Amino acid sequence: MSELFLGISAFYHDSAAALVRDGVPVAAAQEERFSRRRHDSSFPEQAVRYCLDELGVSFGDVSGVAYYEDPQLKFRRVLATLVGAAPTNLTSFRVTLPSWLRADGKLRAVQVVRQGLEALDMGAVPDIAVRRHHESHAASAFFPSPYRSAAVLCVDGVGEWATTTLWHGQDSSLKPLAEIRFPHSLGLLYSAFTYFCGFKVDSGEYKLMGLAPYGEPRYADLIRERLIDVKPDGSFHMNMRYFEYLRGQVMTGQGFEKLFGGPRRTPEGPLTQREFDLAASVQKVTEEVMLRLARTARERTGESKLCLAGGVALNCVANGKIVDSGIFDEVWIQPAAGDAGGALGAALAVAAERQAPRDHVGSGRDAMSGTLLGPAYSDEQIAEYLRRHKIPHRRLDHGRLVDDVAAALADGKIVGWFQDRMEFGPRALGARSILGDARDPAMQSAMNLKIKFRESFRPFAPAVLAEDAKDYFDVHQESPYMLVVSQVAAPQQITVTDTGATGIDLLRVQRSTIPAVTHVDGSARVQTVSADSSPAYHELLNAFKSLTGCPVLVNTSFNVRGEPIVNSPHEAYTCFMRTNIDMLAMGNFLLNKSDQPPWSEENDWRAEIPLD
After folding, report:
1. Exposed, middle or buried, 38 (CB in 10 Å: 0-12/13-18/19+)?
2. Contact residues for 387 (Cβ-Cβ < 8 A; gap 6+)
3. How confident is the model at residue 119 (pLDDT cuts 50, 70, 90)?
4. Dihedral sign, CA of 193, 199, 205, 210?
5. Where are the beta strands (DSSP E) in 358-430?
6. Residues 6+ apart with CB under 8 A from 234
7. How far apart are CA 200 and CA 182, in angstroms?
8. pLDDT value, residue 85
9. How far is it, in rounded angstroms, from Cα 485 to Cα 212?
């Protein structure tokens, strides 16, 4: 008889729910995709309801619920930190303690989760098990992986106490081997520089990673000398004199300002060479630490395969360094590596205790279904939405739609691609994507400024046919989840003469035959697309290749800056109309911008129509 387990993460950032059947993820979603509040940390009511509805079950069919971390243990760490920093942190006391101690506070997170589940009125709620934060990360990394046994490395900001952990995964067991504890945290080191460079902590780290290639690591030695002492085995100790997160509500203060020659960059202020160089420097140090930790993981476990999770595992450049190093024969990264993935990991950990089978092992595939674990909309549902709102469209058979979209992309058009189930995790992987021609030198700036409304320096990722990936990128393994950065292959590179360009001006220099997805250092965050995991997406890439000879498209998430990725047809149409996207493909329906009535923000339907 099948067993279902529901996992939940909530109350910090990126709350989510995930449902696992016999050890296999079958439904998962982040609450932000339903609430439309980016990084929504509230109880994931809508995500839970979706997971149960997707399988047509109630709580009576669920064997157990798992929460992704231990609130009691976490509170002990928070309290110890507050007491240790007293009396210089009175503001922290006033801000932090009430959020823990009130009736619906974080200390009672498990009770609040139970109340939230009961309020759904979907049957008697089963027992709620509590897992440790890093156990949830480790479970999310190992159990869905295609490996029978592997080393497992989890690196993030902080869970309860752990900030870095090493595990040995074998069949249905995970054995902890080593950990580094708060306040010493590679994730918080990176977040400190994110904050100092004017970006938002817990969401701006990927911007810092994208900024790094514009600079030189001229501060790397200073970081090693003053901020973090890294041992040969990758363990580290941070000099807390320079960090403020133990004492206040900010990451850095005067110590950083004196060390790096001036105040923190004002958010949205101009970027200077200092920010470029700071980003390059902390990125280099992060890569060094991750490589040392990877070598230790290999030595301690004797395994030839590595699994990664935790927020730092979303650092695609560091991941690429590990893959390229050859320390491990294969590396698998949980696509929802952050706290949202903790919901999945908690459910998987409980399922593993019940000896859930890992039948996918040996097939060569992981158990993540290409991350397509979210809601899908049938052609009938899309047709009803379009009819109800009198939206001009064409309904085509699938082959014709693919051909028309490929022709539009080859003609320089930007296309919204809304197909299949929504992805779980931070990346759009061809279900909720905006696509463009990677050969177009103007595409990167056009998408950033006219579609995404975001900073011009940020790179876009290529989606490439898996069978053609090595012709375009120096890839050493498949990269289906866009979590590994590789160099553009030599035959695609263009020799660049010294133009004297620096900083953002480097964007104007063409470096390859696919300039829209080539970063200023000649790298790209690659997504390899295979026919078995993403058939429609693969078909589109094939059609584009047939027209152009190029099997590569620009792929970015279907959203604009500051908003979650779209979930429903309504959200897709709204984003389509509010931006300079030229064409929208939803299911087997094709919408051209030129056919649509004028769009007015005053008539924004989001407040009037359910997001169905």
Report:
1. middle
2. none
3. very high
4. negative
5. 394-395, 415-418
6. 289, 290, 291, 292, 293, 294, 295, 296
7. 21
8. 74
9. 13
C-alpha–C-alpha distance, residues 507 and 117, integer Å: 49
Render pLDDT for 219-277 as a digit per residue (tens, 0 to 9). Answer: 999 999 999 999 999 999 999 999 999 887 899 999 999 999 999 999 989 999 999 99
Is residue 196 within 8 A of residue 206, CB to CB? The reply is no
Asked if residues 118 and 125 have their Cβ atoms less than 8 Å apart, the reply is yes
What the block records as the tokens of 347 is 């459910």
For residue 289, what pLDDT band results from cuts at 50, 70 and 90? very high
Task: Identify the H or E element spanning 6.
Answer: strand 4-9
- pLDDT (tens digit, 9 = 90+) per residue, 179-227? 999 999 999 999 999 999 999 999 899 999 999 999 999 999 999 999 9
Is the previous residue joined to 267 through a cis bond, with omega within 30 degrees of 0? no
DSSP 156-191: -S-SSSEEEEEEEEETTEEEEEEEEETT--HHHHHH
pLDDT of 601: 61
Closest of 159, 135, 27, 57 to residue 352, by C-alpha: 135
Q: 87 preceded by cis ω (within 30°)? A: yes
Share of the chain above pLDDT 90, in %: 84
C-alpha–C-alpha distance, residues 233 and 589, integer Å = 55
Can you give the three-state secondary structure of 417-466, one letter per residue?
Answer: EECCCCECCCCCCCCEEEEEECCCCCHHHHHHHHHHCCCCCCCCEEEEEH
- Write the DSSP assignment of 572-607 as a string of letters: HHHHHHHS---EEEETTEEEEGGGSPPP-GGG-GGG
pLDDT in tens, 120-139: 999 999 999 999 999 999 99
- Give the DSSP per-residue string, 504-551: GGGGGS--BS-GGG--TTSEEEEEEE-TTT-HHHHHHHHHHHHHHS--
User: Global pTM?
Assistant: 0.95
Give the full edge-to-edge strand order of the sheet including 394-395. 394-395, 589-592, 583-586, 415-418, 432-437, 552-557, 461-465, 523-529, 484-487
Contact by Cβ (8 Å): 510, 498 = no
Bridge-based pairing of strands 484-487 and 394-395 is unpaired
β-pairing, 583-586 vs 589-592, is antiparallel
| Residue among 403, 112, 85, 456 nearest 243 (CA) | 85
The secondary structure of residue 488, as a DSSP letter, is: B
Label residue 611 by pLDDT band (50, 70, 90). Answer: very low
| Mean pLDDT estimate for the chain | 94
Selected residue with higher pLDDT from 546 and 94 = 546
